[in-house]
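Job type: complex structure
Entries:
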Amino acid sequence: MADKKHRILILGGGFGGVYTALYLDKAMTRAEKERTEVTIVSNENYIVFQPFLPEVISGTIETLHCITPIRRIARRARLYTRRIEEIDTQKKTVRLAPDFLPKPLTLEYDELVVGLGTRMNYALVPGMREHSIPFKYLGDALRLRNESVRALEEADIEQNPVEKKKLLTFVVGGGGFSGVECIAELNDFLTAAIKDYSNIRQEEIRCVLLQSADRILPELGESLALYAQSILGKRGVEIRLNTRLTAISADAAIIQNKQTKEIERIEARTIVSTVPAAAHPLVKSLPFELERDRIVVTKYLDVPKFPGHWALGDCASVPQIDGIKSPPTAQHALRQAKTCATNIVARMRGTSMKQFSFTGLGKLASLGQRSAVAEVFGIKIKGILAWFFWRTVYLSKFPGLDRKIRIAADWTLDLILPRDITQLKIFPAEHVQQEHFHGGEMIFDQGDFGNKFYVLTDGQAEIVKNGNVVATIDKGAPFGEIALVENSPRTAGVRAKTNCTLVSVARPAFRKLLTHLPGVRDSVGSIMQSHGVDPSGLDAPDEDED
Amino acid sequence: MADKKHRILILGGGFGGVYTALYLDKAMTRAEKERTEVTIVSNENYIVFQPFLPEVISGTIETLHCITPIRRIARRARLYTRRIEEIDTQKKTVRLAPDFLPKPLTLEYDELVVGLGTRMNYALVPGMREHSIPFKYLGDALRLRNESVRALEEADIEQNPVEKKKLLTFVVGGGGFSGVECIAELNDFLTAAIKDYSNIRQEEIRCVLLQSADRILPELGESLALYAQSILGKRGVEIRLNTRLTAISADAAIIQNKQTKEIERIEARTIVSTVPAAAHPLVKSLPFELERDRIVVTKYLDVPKFPGHWALGDCASVPQIDGIKSPPTAQHALRQAKTCATNIVARMRGTSMKQFSFTGLGKLASLGQRSAVAEVFGIKIKGILAWFFWRTVYLSKFPGLDRKIRIAADWTLDLILPRDITQLKIFPAEHVQQEHFHGGEMIFDQGDFGNKFYVLTDGQAEIVKNGNVVATIDKGAPFGEIALVENSPRTAGVRAKTNCTLVSVARPAFRKLLTHLPGVRDSVGSIMQSHGVDPSGLDAPDEDED
């Protein structure tokens, strides 16, 4: 047993996890390092610097420049880019999901550091998962940029004014840091981009920010928030306070005024949600005590009653010296990582542990166009000074010299070059997906060309022909199956009678893949026959629709 | 009728189509412009500069910098970013597929310019579509980069030497310009990237280039091709000449020596195919005469017997002055665009047309690491001089000053900064897909953890338990359905007896979406019962596997 290494296993590739590995390396002597094995498990092989995500929307920062490879920061740690399936705190093992090879991997540990962050809680708002773009990961920022360009492309050739308005309306739900920075960059991007679209005028662009509280940026003092509100307002952003997002459908955000209780539809094709956080399912599966979905830890960052178990970052409820719990920010995770690494080493050495003593440097929100608001050591700053401060602080914190240089180059080029309006179609359209419709909305109109077949999984819908309801569709029923055979106008429309959840299947996926599933071809065929449609077209070869 | 505009409709957003719009604008007088309407229909809103695609693999050029928005080049043209569904040369209309709105759009024209390029011809090699990464579009280059990093991540933690070798083998099929530049950049990238992977040594990386002819780069003279072969060979690239790719399966390239007829398996996880070209289905649907899948045009670029119809670029068979047909390159498409625009204007004015007189400037292939081979005006150059020439020529041809600056900045930073090894998981794994297995290959092993259910759509497979074949599976039969209920080791393996095509369905997709399809839940349930498995697990809620 003498030559067995002390195994420190870190779960999560955010600032908390990755910097724990880095600080462990700094805190240990050479002999200690040789007796120790540090492992990180992360879904991604890079760390995302969240404050720069909004700038990816506008292209001010290149997509890849707001992330840094974990291997470059924690050079001595072993990295597993895998999904975690199970944590067993009794046996002290963690099982990882298979990747290329269909074999799960089981890792053993002596010390476990949980830095798994949070998950998005889609459950609160119907349709949020299906019809909004979340704003948390790098892929989201890239997708939002793409969808915005797509909306501009479509709006530029759209003849129908109602549809054009819908295409040019952009809604962001959530008036915290993330929502405010998102709408600011999105609005700037759209304003700059439409110069290349001859049929879109500035006044046709509508950017709406929804906030349930009576002001935006609850993280900051009131005067800064009001300043930010007026700056955004001047640029044409419409801020709706005291407004709750109650549902999102395929073409509208359904909102409610918290005071008047009035319900309103904002018709829009592009809806972003800064989705509220919920506990990671793995965190919930642990036998640790949770407080508001976060793991309770001591001021030393270890989990009470579970020696050798530590938690930090957004998934942990970390007490500060001032008694307040640490907020979920990168600056706190980073300092927690230092405390955690120090205390793991102290435990190995049998020396005394240090308590977490950081209380925050300050808070910053960028408003785009060289403007920002900030609160630093209790001092409030705003405008171009805050913006300059914002850039300097974040750039200095950004991990890796190579990325610092790349970002500085991006910012420099951005001062002189036009905005990028290319639309990358690298997100393949899902062929089988869930959809949500709000009561009263049309699922499809009579005369539409459709290539989708639907199954109503919840709610009730009605068939509308020449303005009259001719039948109702109940839960479990399929409809629109004629689209599986031919590309022709729908002979009737279908409207959601109540709020509806559907599963839709596009023709190519059905024809190429799903008809092979046992039972499917025959069931759909007999539905068609009962509707008086010849099902033999299902077996004809379909055109290639790549 | 006097105030009706003359409508010129250009199909395709490549160099041919987009530059026709640009040159039309230059060739027309102001009065003519006012009487004319120029429209481009393109799948994408940008033009891809193909020669730079290989550099996206290695990150030398940022992803978005090798493309330019069409709107910035052809500023006065109207752009429709839509898929084309039908071309009617009798009625002179083109129908576009629906996008956000489920209504198809029909455009009328007086002059039609067809510049639709080619499609990939997957049909020649079984498994090519399912298991190889094509190399034609921007998304492909990005995907290849991601898959390569993923393979490195997995190899770094892989304990099984056979599997590790498979992960570190990279095969590129096709020894023309595109295949050679691809393997050169890929090899350079891997060599630079493994510095961050402590468990991967340079000699473990295997890069193989497959070429069916007896030398690479048939487009160039023999001496340059041999020079390129020796350069790549020195860097460790294995070049297999006289070798045909006969099939691609989930974990191997199956190749055949053209002389000895010997069949060989190269086990590899990453296989790239520079897929051969075939006619675009829309081109085939036209009543025009085709020659080797390309539209026959006169030396004026118009289609014989169809006045007002023009074709250019890769989809057209354009005669050069020297009697040879134009090769499918950007430099030719660009010059054809100029001739085509001139002649459209001549036709409008009733003046005489000009014949296409370009015969090519030269040919260049980059070999990475500041090396290239080129033939310019009959002169052969190679090495760093050719490389410098390559960069200068292409950069000068690249559309748009802003992109020129960005690319120059990329190249400058690349000289000093390390390669990027972040793996973006923005390509969602397909949940229902087709797979191909070669006779003798294991589809899954006994003991594997699997979350997929399969239906054999072609071929025959056998069930293997403890080394013995216990049953065979025929076409149409489903298997592996236990994976739909639980995450447990497979109780038996399944091996392809002949070449097999399968449809596979992952558990999350099945549980969330497909069980709603009529007939599916019951059919799969009864299959389970007939195999002695309790199907009630199908109805239990599944964990969230986002």
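Summary: Chain B touches chain A through 99 residues (CB under 8 Å). Chain B has a mean pLDDT of 85.
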